[in-house]
Amino acid sequence: MVPAAVSAPEVEDASDEAGSDHTRYSLLASAVAGRKLAVRGSDIERAYSDGEVIHVPMADGPDVLVAVVIQSAMAGVGSFEPRLAARLLGRATPARRYMTLEAARAINMIGHCVPPTVRTAVDDHWNGRLSVSAHESLKRALDGERIPPAPEHFGVMRPSKLLRGGGAASATSPTGKGSLSQTNDESLPELDDDEDSDESKILKLLSSPLNWENPLLKMLRNQMGMSRRPSPDDNGGSADMPVGSQAVADKVGANARAIAAPPGLEFLNAAEPTGDFCYPEWDWHRRCYREAWCRVGEFDPPPRPDQAVDHPRIDPLLRRQLARLGLAYRRHDRQEEGDSLDPEAITNLATELATGEIEDPRVYQARLRSAHDLGVIVLIDASGSTGERHASGDPIWERQRMLAANLVMALEEVGDRVACYGFTSRGRNQIRFLRVKDFEGRLDQGALKRLAAIEPAGFTRMGAAIRHSTHLAATKAGTSNRLLVVISDGFPYDDDYQGSYAEHDTRRALSEAVDQAVGCVCLSVGTSTDEAALERLWGHVSHVGLLSPNDMGRHLLPLFGSALKAASGRRRDERGKPTSSLGHFAISGRSSA
């Protein structure tokens, strides 16, 4: 969940109620959560949140401060997402274990604004392994891991209140659906979150055929990801989809774009983490990183035997330009002049003088800049937005694919090390790296088939993709000069990742790459994204908008040269003082979590 740039849905001012003394905590709760929250005193024993308001006992004291900070921290890191709350309905014991794990994870993530007393309380209660995400905490809580239940002064998690309130729902990606907070319905039954039950009452209510057309329940089912689907065995019958399934939306937000997911590339449920690499994400609202926020996995594109394979075109201009870049010094023997003598050449010359037949009088060694020492990662944006068609009629994706193939082929021919990946995403837990070729492979028939198998699908969580590319360049390239070439339409967008938030994270990721001596070049081919947006996104690194892949040759030398110069300057600044892991961001590597 991304802290909103605008305020959360307006909550009722509590100043006119008996709990008005507790409203002084509202500013603290909003600062910790990164969005507007209210705190209200109520006649209850333990604090809880409905996503918009944190309800606390009337009696004030140190326990109220602990509960307010923990509940608002959990709201800020996505612990109260509707699908997670739905899984805990009627499961009091797992909910208390989940509270323990999520309180520890939330306080660890935003510890910079947490009072020391609260951090001490959390650390004293749980010092075990932290979860990477809320979904992992849920899985651990439901699997029966030995986790102590959260103490009373942490407050409790009431899934029924979260689902009825709607504050958690407001943190999800924008759609045309009204949020649950827009309905003030009193007909939902009160659920007892303090007792365990075999089956949730609300799930029975939602799945009952008699209630299926109730407008309010229909809205709640959609928010939880439930819908009806035809049964294959009859005509007009239906069957229930389980919680966590996907439903077709009849109206979407203004930023949504139509995509066509290719066979074999359908995403898993976005609620389930997929991938072995964890990366943070820059939250420009709070001016801090959300640690271990995104998960990246590497995959081979599913094969498509019917897909035609286009062989890249040999571009002499592109090859000549690349041959002049990323060169390192190498010692050459038998030179006419140089900085030292060549012992073997002198010995041979003495022998030739003795015999009277001098064949080669060159006896010097010289260090010449002729060795190729350049490692390049070509990263292709394969999100659904690249499926748009150019004015000429061909999809932008086809132009991106052609540009990537031509560039990789030219880099291979001049002897540089090059890797190529496509990327797409659906939520922060599913950023997919689709391998075309790695640094050790070749752009052979198999790599070309993998490139041809990739089709536009999903979204564009660009910051995480750039961070993973930087990691690969720094650890796998094996060269002193390193480049990241991003080929994209310049439109970062994903669930809870859009607008200024996405632009700032992308810019930050590019800056991190340069800090790690990885030069960055950003290319777009025939995109409809306006120049002002591209300038905001890529203006601080080398970038250009191409009309055609064939235009790359005349832009390559200044673009790549400028990027390598920036990375080289960073290397000189940091010589002898390497930054930790990957600079500003903490890579968990292949996480066991």
Give a quick summary of the entry.
The strands form four sheets. An eight-stranded mixed sheet has the order 6-7-13-12-11-14-15-16, sandwiched between helices. A three-stranded mixed sheet has the order 1-3-2, covered by helices on one side. Strands 8-10-9 form a three-stranded antiparallel sheet. It has three domains: 253 residues, no CATH class; 220 residues, Rossmann fold, CATH 3.40.50.410; 42 residues, no CATH class. It is an alpha/beta fold and 593 residues long.
Give a verbal description of the structure.
Helices cover 34% and strands 17% of the residues. The chain is of the alpha/beta class. The protein folds into 3 domains: 1-253, no CATH class; 301-319 and 373-573, 3-Layer(aba) Sandwich (Rossmann fold), CATH 3.40.50; 331-372, no CATH class. The strands form 4 sheets. An 8-stranded mixed sheet has the order 6-7-13-12-11-14-15-16, sandwiched between helices. A 3-stranded mixed sheet has the order 1-3-2, with helices on one face. Strands 8-10-9 form a 3-stranded antiparallel sheet. Helix 12 links the parallel strand 11 and strand 12 (417-425). The radius of gyration is 29 Å and the shape is elongated. The protein starts with 25 loop residues before the first helix and ends in a 20-residue tail after the last helix. The relative contact order is 0.09. Mean pLDDT is 75; it is low at 1-20, 166-191, 225-252, 258-271 and 576-593.
